[in-house]
Amino acid sequence: MGGGLLNLMAHGAENLIINGNPKTTYFKTVYKTHTNFGIQKFRVDYNGQRMLDLNKETELTFKIPRYADLVNDVYLVMNLPDIWSGVYVDSSGTTSYKIPYEFKWIEEIGVQMISEITIMHGGLVLSKYSGEYLSCLVERDLNGTKKELWNRMVGNLKELNDPANASTNYYKEYPNAFYDTDVTTPGPSILGKTLYIPIMPWFGMNSKQSFPLVASQYNELFINIKIKPVRELYIIRDVENYYKVSIASEIDLPEYIAPNTTNDLHQLYRFLNPPINTGQMTRNSTRNDWNADIHLLCNYVFLSDEEQTKMAGNEQKYIARLPYERDYHNVTGSRTIDIECRDLVSSLMWRFRRSDVNEINAWNNYTNWIGNYPPDFFSTNDFPIVAPPGTFKGRQTANANPANQKEIMLDCAISFDGKYRENTLDAGVYNLTEKLYKTPSNAKDGLYCYNFCMNTDHTDPTPSGAVNLAKFEHVTLEFNTIQPPINGAKQFDVLCDEDGNVIGYRKDAFNINEYNFDLRVFEERYNVVYFRSGHVGLVYAK
C-alpha cells in the first residue's frame, strides 16, 4: 500500500476543520462592502525585571490592555547599545601585544535571543514557540524584499554581526575603538540600533484572524517572553590564546568564542564603554547592562458599534495553525525517533545542530561547518602548476576529514505505526525538492521540510492539506547522520574494584566524538480557537 493512502485512511472528526462541504468557487466573483474600522499602534510595557541578565534568562510578562476591540500584529521592540570594541593589551612578556577583540552580535539576534514565547488567555496556553521557530518560518516562507525587510527588523545585518564587511565600511577592516593622543573619545565600533521583532502569533499573520478582545471579556490576554542570557548574544576573539609573535606578522587572528563571563576580560562592560587612557583596558563604568527599553508594539483595531455588538454577542471561531517543538539530544549516527505528533498536521520542519555551537554562540548554524567554508579542506602546501617550477602555483587538498562534510543528515524515512509514509530518501529530497513548489522560499541548508499540504505560506489562513495523526500511535523518523570526528583524547573509562584492579571498560557514547548532533522538530498543527460567552478555548486541547 502506498504511504500516501495513509492520509485517506486517517479520517476523523478533526478533518471537519478543513474537509467539510466546499464553500468556495473559483468561477464567480462578488463585490462586497465592509464595515468601517480604524487602526492604531499602542506601546505595551511589561511586568518583570527591567534589565536583561548577563548569565540567566530574563522573563517578560506583557498583559495586553483593552485599548481597542481587536489586536493584530505584535512586535517586540528593543534597543541594542553602542559597542566600543577595543584591544586587549598583553604585557606579560618582554613585548606588549595589542590584540583586537572584534566584538560581534550573533546573527539574527532579534529572534535568536528569544528562547520562548507563550500566549495565554486566563490559565489556558494557546500557543508556545521559540525564536528559532520564527527564524525557520521566515526561512521557509519569506522571500525577496520581505525577507530583506525582516532581516533589517531583527538586526540580521553585517553592521551588527560582521562590521568589517558591512556595506558602509569602505576599508573592509574591523573598526576597533582605540585611545591615543589624537583620538581621545573613540567613536563606537558598532552603532546602537532599535530592533522591531515580529513575534508572529497566529492572530498577527492575517487581518482576518485578529484576536477579538471584545469577545473575551472574562479573562485577560498575556504574552510571556523569555530572553536568553546576554552572554549568548555576542562573540569575541579569544584574545588570551594568541601566538606570542609580533602583531605585524602575517598570522591569523585568534578564533571567535562565546564570552566566559567569569573572566573579567570578557565582561560586557568592556564593550559598553570606550577606553579612557592609553593603557586601553580601563573603562569609566563596570556595569554590564544598558537601557534596552523593551516593550511590545501592538496594532489595535477599532470597530464600529454595530460590529462590536456582533463580535461580542455571537460565537467566533478561527482556524489557527499552531507550532509545537520537540528536542532530541545526542542523535548521532543511525537512529529511530518517535516524534509526538497528533491531530491535524500540515507540515514538519526539523534541523540538526552541532552540540558545540554554544562555544561560539552559532545558534542558527544547521550544518556541520563552523563557518562558511570546510574547516580542513586545503593544505598549507602548494605546488607549481608549470613544470619546471614557474611563478604560478596551485593549492592542494589536505587529508580527508569528516568535518569537511557540510550536510549533517544523510537520509530519512517517515513511518506511521510501522507503515512507511515515505521510504528512505536522500536528504536532498527534504532539503531541496520539498521546498521547490510547496514553500514560498527556499530555506537554508540543514532546515529539512516535509509537507502534508500544498502551500506552507503562513500569511494565508486557507488550509491546503493536512494529515490526521490522531489515528496513529507512533510517528517515527528513521535517519542516518554523518560521523563526527572521533575524540582521540577519551574513548573509554577504566572500571576498577575496591582494590584498584581493572575489572572492565566503559564507553561514554557522548564523549566518543568531538561533538554530537541535536535534533529539533517543528510541527505545525491546525486547531480551532473559539470565543464563546466571553471565554476562549481550543476545540482540540492538548
UniProtKB/TrEMBL annotation:
Occurrences of domain Major capsid protein C-terminal (ranges): 329-537
GO molecular function: structural molecule activity
Residue ranges constituting the Major capsid protein N-terminal domain according to the UniProt record: 25-242
SUPFAM superfamilies in alphabetical order: Group II dsDNA viruses VP
InterPro entries: Capsid_N, MCP_C, MCP_C_sf, VP_dsDNA_II
Gene3D superfamilies in the record: Adenovirus Type 2 Hexon, domain 4, Major capsid protein Vp54
Protein name per Swiss-Prot or TrEMBL: Major capsid protein N-terminal domain-containing protein
Species: viral metagenome
